[in-house]
Inverse folding.
């Protein structure tokens, strides 16, 4: 009898592992079907640093705050959008209409994002584990006359609901054939100096194991 039980054990373990893998695949597939994404063309959210408001596609104004949970991002230096070489933070998220979306920040706003990343890192967390609220903060340049007024984005966060986080991570981290490749075609170049990135697809990256995915600490 004992010999028979030992013979059956590997089969049971194999069936359990197979069931777990099948459940994981179904979970990822459900997440992919839930979210809308035209590859390389996420819905564009913008931060207007002159007016101090967020908008969609430069048209639909949203106000002075934007709340989102990142699924992918990169912080980099590049000359994009005819704005010269700047420090940029490009963050991808799922909006309230289940669209894969992206928002760009530059300059001092990027420094403020780094201030979020550091404490999260030491708590073994990333931006994907929190819900971020970006707020337009007014600044004045009194060195010129008339004085200049501009806005930078400041950031705060709260821990995200794990039940919400799981499908977002499953979608962004999926490496299977046909999985979503998260990037924005309009801001993609082969000369970007990327400082940190997660779940960001970069066809120019020359990595040995995964040439299509850039994920650096």
């Amino acid at each position: 009898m004992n010999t028979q039980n030992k013979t059956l054990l590997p089969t049971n373990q194999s069936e359990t592992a197979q069931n777990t893998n099948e459940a994981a695949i179904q979970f990822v597939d459900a997440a992919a079907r839930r979210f809308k994404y035209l590859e390389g063309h996420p819905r564009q959210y913008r931060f207007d640093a002159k007016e101090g408001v967020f908008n969609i596609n430069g048209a639909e104004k949203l106000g002075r705050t934007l709340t989102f949970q990142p699924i992918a991002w990169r912080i980099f230096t590049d000359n994009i959008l005819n704005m010269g070489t700047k420090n940029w933070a490009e963050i991808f998220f799922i909006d309230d209409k289940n669209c894969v979306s992206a928002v760009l920040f530059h300059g001092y706003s990027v420094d403020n994002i780094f201030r979020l990343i550091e404490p999260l890192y030491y708590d073994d967390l990333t931006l994907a584990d929190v819900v971020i609220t970006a707020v337009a903060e007014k600044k004045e340049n009194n060195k010129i006359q008339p004085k200049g007024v501009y806005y930078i984005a400041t950031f705060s966060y709260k821990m995200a609901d794990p039940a919400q986080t799981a499908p977002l991570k499953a979608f962004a981290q999926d490496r299977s054939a046909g999985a979503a490749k998260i990037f924005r075609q309009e801001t993609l170049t082969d000369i970007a100096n990327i400082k940190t990135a997660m779940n960001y697809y970069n066809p120019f990256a020359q990595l040995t194991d995964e040439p299509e995915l850039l994920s650096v600490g």
